[in-house]
Amino acid sequence: MTRAQVRRRLALAWWRQLGLSLAPLFVLNLLFGADPAFMPVLAMPLFIAGLASMYVSLPLFNAYKHALIATEKALDSPAEPAAWLALAAQRRRAFLGAGLPAWIAALAVFVGLEALPLVLLALSSCLLLVLYRIPRQLG
To answer: Where do the domains of the chain lie?
Structure first.
C-alpha cells in the first residue's frame, strides 16, 4: 500500500470518528431534547464531567505525538509499514478519549442540559479530534 493510500485511509477514519463522536449527541437531542428532564440536578455535574474528560486526552495525545515522530523517522525505510500501523492503532485509542466530551453531552441530554453547554462539549470534542489529523509533513 502506498503512502498516499495510507494517508487517505487515515483521513477517512478521522471523518468517520468525527461522525461517530457527534452523531449520538445530535440523534439523542433530536429524539429526546424536548422531553422533560430526568433528574435535572445532574445537569451541572455531567457538564463538569464532560469538561474534565478532556484531560483524558493528555496522555493519549502524548503517545500519539511519539507515534507520529516514530513514523516520521521510519519514512522510506523497511519499518515504514509497521510505523503506520502503530500510528493508526495509537490514533484509534486517542479517538476514544477525544470523543468523550461529546458522548457525555449525549448522556446529559436526558438530564436537561441546556443547548449552550451541549454545544461547548461537542466543540471540545471537535477540537480534540483536530489534534489527531495527520500532518501534511508526514506525507
So the answer is: 3-138
